[in-house]
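Annotated sample (chain length 95).
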Amino acid sequence: MTAYVVIDLNIADPEGFQEYIDGVTPLIDKAGGRNLLIDGNALVLEGDWHPATLVIHQFESKAVLQRFWDSAEYQPLKELRRKYSTVKVVAGENA
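Output written by the structure step:
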């Protein structure tokens, strides 16, 4: 079942954050994931959620996503991401 990662991304330092993007993109590809959306101007239809940048990734399953998230390769990139941005991240799986 396909899993989707929804990220509410707020970048504090675009130049520093580019280092994270350069490192994480090949890891997402390696895990079979793909980037579906990056939108810095998401349309809020209802409610009070206003993501600075809305990001959606797709993975084969939650299990594949979890392996990527927990991988030793991704851990230092998480720290880099935290240095240059703040995020809220949720995942769901299509039944």
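Annotation: The longest strand covers residues 3-11.
Annotation: The mean pLDDT is 97.
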